Automatic annotation (TrEMBL), chain A:
The keyword Hydrolase does not apply. Residues 17-253, 259-508 form the ABC transporter domain. Keywords: ATP-binding, Cell membrane, Membrane, Nucleotide-binding, Repeat, Sugar transport, Translocase, Transport. It comes from Brachybacterium equifaecis. GO terms for molecular function: ATP binding. This is Sugar ABC transporter ATP-binding protein. InterPro entries: AAA+_ATPase (IPR003593), ABC_carbohydrate_import_ATPase (IPR050107), ABC_transporter-like_ATP-bd (IPR003439), ABC_transporter-like_CS (IPR017871), P-loop_NTPase (IPR027417).
TrEMBL record, chain B:
The chain crosses the membrane at residues 27-44, 56-79, 105-129, 136-154, 174-196, 227-246, 258-276, 283-302, 308-326. It is a multi-pass membrane protein. PANTHER family: ABC TRANSPORTER PERMEASE PROTEIN YPHD-RELATED-RELATED (PTHR32196), RIBOSE IMPORT PERMEASE PROTEIN RBSC (PTHR32196:SF72). It is found in: Cell membrane. Keywords: Cell membrane, Membrane, Transmembrane, Transmembrane helix. The lineage of its organism: Bacteria, Bacillati, Actinomycetota, Actinomycetes, Micrococcales. This is ABC transporter permease. InterPro entries: ABC_transp_permease. Its main location: membrane. Pfam families: BPD_transp_2.
Amino acid sequence: MTSDSAGRTSSNLEPMLRATDVAKRYGGVRALRGVDFEIRAGEVHGLVGENGAGKSTLIKVLAGAETPDTGTVTVDGKTLRLGDTQASLAAGISTVYQEPHLFGELTVAENIFVGRELTTRGRVRWAEQREQVAQLLEQIGLDPNLARRNVADLPVGEQQLISIAKAFATEVKILILDEPSAILADRDIDTLFEVVRRMRASGVGVIYISHRLDELGQITDRITVMRDGSVVTTRPTHELNPRKIAELMVGHELERLSVERKTVSEEVVLDIHGLAAGKSMKDVSLQLRKGEILGVYGLIGSGTSDLARAMFGIVPSTAGEIKVNGTTAVLRSPADAAAAGFAMVPGNRKSEGVFLNKSLAFNISASHLRYFSKAGLAFDAKRERATTLELMKKLRVKAPAPETRIGALSGGNQQKVVMARQLVESPSVLILEEPTQGVDVGAKDEIHRLVLELAAEGTSSVVISTDLEEIRTLSDRIIVLHQGRVGHEFPGDTSTAALLAAASGATDVDADADRAIPAPRITEGES
Amino acid sequence: MSTVTQEKAPRPVPRLRRTPIIEGQEAVLIAVLVIVGVLLAVFTDTFMTSANIQTVLYTVAPIAIIGVGMTAVMVTAGIDVSVGSQMAIAMVVVGKLLRDTDLGWFPALVVAVVVGSILGIINGLLIVVGRIHPMIITFGTLNVYRYVALQIFGDQQVSGVPDDLGFIGGSVQAVTFGIPNALLLAMALMVIMWAYMRQWAGGRHLYAIGGDPGAARLTGIQVNRKLISVYVLIGVLVGIASLVQVGSGGLIQQNVGIGLELQVIAACVIGGTSVLGGRGTVFGTLLGALLVGTVSSAVTHLGWPNELTNLFVGIFIIVAVGIDLVRQKRRTKL
């Protein structure tokens, strides 16, 4: 898989960028404890670590967005002035952050040239800029007509590719990609990999940060693993595999998830028949039994998110019926859904899930104010605290106290709190939408274990995810949606190949289809 | 046999679009202005007289001049509500100097500009260093500057100001080609600013800062310097606008400039400048100022009660902001 890249790296061993003994402290937290790190010309260097391991701080130091307390960085032997974004840019270090840092009201061409416009006495040479950008876009496989469009009018995946194009347009020596694939659809990931390979071929050193460990195997030459503000190891990619990387990240061997599960009972908790809602869900029927975990998989636009939102009363259903424990439920609002026994962990934690400025206890009790009040009036703070503590223990939330502000916690711990909120009143059906998106390997494992434990205790869950491994790890059964309908139903241990085929519309899929066949984009990636 | 058909959802074909010189909202404003003008010409015989038109245009001039700066400030996602108090200081200083010394118009201009830029620098530094929302900072300085102005007034209004600045004042002589010189000055400033914000890199950076200040900093734009400069710019323009106000001389009262910020912000918002930053043109602001001026005059000439002006301006603001928000919302849904 990585033979060609391994051959390439041995040809040029002199590092282009070298960071020595970089340390940074935020108050009492030691974000970096004397890190040594280097990048060679023409290599793709994976940088991994759990949230809080120090990756972001390290790349901010390289980009000049943070000033380290100690340490030096040299580029081509020359010492870099630290804490100055201009100096880093001038030295050829370009960073593409996770969220596209683009200006919505400016055109793509303007965005690519912003800060270093082609000007005559201050006046922008529009035609020339547009021409160059059109060429650049063409070169990396994007539509050259995009140059004239306002960025705010483009879908987010395209915006991400534009920010990479922006880095490509500068005299870049070192390109830092911070989780570039996190918000990309599969076909955009192919484009991304293509762009990264072209950059490597032209001698750029690429730092590639990703939580998707399988990607690292496809695209990187070497991988540096960080933990607790230190570098654990830097090794050629071919010496590592996703499991090994994950173990280095968390610092101990991962146990295989093994939770004692009773067999699922026959009692049907949720019965959906012919449901249609939103723009893309046309006709979905499913049944969920007590203690069962049902996986729902589908490509973007197949109706999976409409299904989640219809079950939680966010979008009204236009046809069909939802029965909970045998009674028909009419869900016009999330309040209706909660009353019917649904609980939902939404996909977009930041915008739908948490009150970042509020305490853990507040976040947990927020949707249960009646439950936490005495005689329906006075709020019972003691009970709130006790319940919060109990749930924190159960979910292994790493936080000092129920009063801790949730924004101070890592993504994984925040997600656990969001789940804890849903468990306060023991729901009949737990809807989990992308439950581990953006959380690190360790927390992902714990969240999975928790879902399995809840199922063992009799909670029924619907897991809607685009992470196939997650779906396969958790689900007793999997339904695949295609164009708003249930395309197929599979047992939980179905191969990824079969699930992908069904999601893209194949009609005669064998659940036991050859498991050696990896996902299509992996094969495309190496061709 | 597997029938996996790789269905690629069609990529939306991008629509080619040049940034038009006159944008949608501006075209609508021109249309509204024309309609109001025609209606007034038909229903009154006092509105469409050159004297009245000149009065309206002269009233609009200071708002348009300050609007040039306010547009730049609002495009960076800021705001300056202290302009009224700034104007009070500039006017009382210039007025007293004109009256008590033999100051010519040019030294008066220099004084007004210096006073304005000092007040602007104070606002800009507090906003950048304190990292506090401009609304709060300038709300603070609105009160502080008003106190300073009142101290300079002493306990009486300034009367007997000579008309050294009459050529940009409101008199019938201060008119070229039927347009008050004050408005011509405003239009000249607008053309310069329009070109700068549309064509010059430095001007485009204002939009970048308003869109995402963090990202702007990362692309190497000197965000703080730029932000201070727009507050200085608005201070300078307040200085110039106060010359227009002092223009015909006479009396300067202590309550001068109270509520001015609301008129200027109304002109910007009605002209399509987004309260969220990143969007707006000085041309739109001029149209916004003209519309407010016209409507206010129209109410008088139709013999309607004055408070109707407030109602109309309020409706215009809500409609303009509503259009902006709907537009933003539609975009985030993409």
